[in-house]
């Protein structure tokens, strides 16, 4: 009798876990009944994440020329130095507020944070296009980074809106949209910056876009953010707004009272304890989470430094070891890269992750990136069609590897904590990552500026030094992906 009654009680317990007025319970019920691919959710995640990525990357092609027009640099070699600080100001603002936004997301829900972030992009990114001097640009980028807490929130959201078997797809949507944004953004900035010079038949020098040559790309990004704001109203909230602890303990008591079979009681107790949030445990004592965040920050430091250096290196004159590209040339290269990145992440990455796991993907990506980066300085020796083919292939492969590494580490971070801690854990991740990304552009710009002054050095002349330093950072990240440093989370702490 007891053996037959225990499964019924457990079944009843699972059904009673749902609260009709709780948005998180509604999402969980849909996840349990619908095992299909969450196409609509993945689309929403992609649009909102893309909205957060575009303001970061859209300025890369024209930042060099924008700083030049501010007339703050005394020499051409110093432009990269000042450009690095404009890029870093956004990340500094985000580093200082990411934990706060994570706590707000855990307290009030994911959706309010997303809406505030998209509205912030609408306003402050457009104002950045109106910058008339260096310090105005610095302040506006800082405010944009401080008030936009989208990325960390969407990482938590992606793992909550998808069933466990679709976690890789959800996190891949975040990483892919982020990677696409880091590619489409430069395309927007490259083709739409300085429109009066590129398209004199449409924009005159006396027009608004002639007087503010960098407003048009910023305005286009703000308009896209406006669309993302409207879409965000349809985002289903995933945060549970009730106290599950007391309920779980009550259900455990009911199971114990009505079950005479010790084995069934033990299984019921284990099931109930796995549902109790780990809110009493410090996130900083969760080594699988902490180790994944540290490795993630190292790779993100590398990636942001690479993006900053690549754009500045490409537009630098050949006399300084660059490619003498225009903003449109840089935008075209990165736009082509985006196509390959999109195809890989949507169709290939989820399959590969299920076969080899997220850690192995990160290791393979790091190993392949090192020889690829070492070849970059020699691309400057090419010209014409050969340069175009080689640069597009190298850029596409580099971005595919970078986003694959990021996606694998994000999956590990979200699997290492329960839902009640996921917003805070992603806030900590975003804060530490943003500090590393604050360092990346500033150090990358300064390093490139210094390297371009030593073209005749005997050891690692010119840009060879820059890409060597990038490889050192990549190698450090690779070494940290091995045990005992990086530890994968156990299955029993993976939230539903």
Automatic annotation (TrEMBL):
Bilayer topology annotation = Multi-pass membrane protein
Q: What is the official name of this protein in its record? A: Major facilitator superfamily (MFS) profile domain-containing protein
Family note: Belongs to the major facilitator superfamily. Phosphate:H(+) symporter (TC 2.A.1.9) family.
For this UniProt entry, which segments traverse the membrane? Answer: 41-67, 79-101, 113-130, 136-157, 169-192, 212-235, 289-313, 333-352, 364-383
Principal location class: membrane
> Which parts of the sequence belong to the Major facilitator superfamily (MFS) profile domain?
41-489
Compartments where found: Membrane
Q: Does the keyword rRNA processing apply?
A: no
UniProt keyword annotations, A-Z: Membrane, Transmembrane, Transmembrane helix, Transport
Tell me what organism the protein belongs to: Datura stramonium (Jimsonweed)
Record Pfam families = MFS_1
């Amino acid at each position: 009798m007891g053996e037959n009654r225990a499964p019924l009680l457990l079944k009843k317990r699972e059904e009673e876990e749902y609260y009709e007025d709780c948005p998180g319970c509604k999402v969980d019920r849909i996840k349990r009944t619908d095992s299909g691919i969450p196409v609509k959710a993945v689309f929403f995640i992609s649009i909102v994440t893309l909205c957060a990525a575009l303001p970061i990357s859209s300025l890369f092609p024209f930042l060099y020329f924008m700083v030049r027009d501010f007339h703050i640099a005394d020499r051409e070699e110093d432009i990269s130095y000042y450009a690095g600080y404009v890029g870093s100001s956004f990340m500094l603002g985000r580093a200082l507020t990411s934990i706060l936004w994570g706590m707000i997301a855990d307290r009030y829900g994911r959706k309010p944070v997303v809406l505030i972030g998209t509205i912030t992009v609408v306003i402050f990114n457009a104002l950045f296009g109106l910058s008339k001097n260096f310090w105005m640009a610095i302040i506006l980028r800082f405010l944009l980074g401080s008030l936009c807490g989208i990325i960390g929130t969407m990482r938590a959201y992606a793992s909550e809106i998808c069933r466990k078997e679709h976690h890789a797809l959800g996190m891949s949507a975040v990483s892919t949209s982020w990677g696409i944004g880091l590619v489409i953004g430069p395309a927007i900035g490259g083709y739409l910056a300085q429109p009066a010079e590129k398209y004199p038949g449409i924009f005159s020098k006396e027009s608004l876009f002639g007087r503010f040559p960098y407003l048009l790309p910023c305005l286009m990004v703000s308009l896209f953010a406006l669309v993302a704001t409207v879409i965000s109203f349809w985002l289903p909230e995933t945060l549970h707004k009730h106290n599950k602890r007391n309920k779980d303990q009550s259900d455990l008591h009911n199971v114990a009272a009505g079950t005479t079979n010790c084995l069934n009681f033990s299984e019921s107790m284990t099931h109930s304890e796995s549902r109790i949030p780990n809110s009493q445990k410090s996130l900083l004592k969760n080594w699988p989470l902490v180790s994944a965040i540290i490795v993630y920050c190292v790779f993100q430091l590398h990636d942001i430094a690479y993006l900053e250096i690549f754009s500045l290196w490409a537009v630098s004159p050949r006399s300084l070891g660059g490619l003498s590209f225009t903003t449109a040339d840089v935008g075209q290269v990165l736009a082509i890269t985006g196509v390959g990145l999109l195809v890989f992440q949507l169709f290939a990455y989820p399959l590969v992750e299920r076969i080899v796991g997220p850690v192995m993907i990160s290791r393979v990506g790091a190993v392949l990136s090192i020889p690829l980066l070492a070849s970059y300085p020699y691309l400057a020796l090419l010209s014409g069609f050969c340069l175009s083919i080689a640069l597009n292939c190298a850029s596409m492969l580099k971005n595919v590897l970078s986003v694959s590494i990021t996606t694998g580490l994000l999956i590990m971070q979200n699997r290492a904590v329960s839902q009640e801690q996921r917003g805070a854990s992603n806030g900590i991740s975003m804060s530490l990552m943003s500090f590393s990304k604050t360092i990346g552009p500033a150090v990358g710009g300064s390093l490139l500026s210094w390297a371009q002054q030593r073209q005749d050095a005997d050891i690692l002349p010119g840009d060879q030094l820059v890409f060597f330093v990038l490889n050192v950072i990549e190698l450090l990240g690779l070494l940290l992906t091995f045990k005992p440093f990086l530890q994968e989370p156990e299955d029993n702490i993976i939230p539903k």
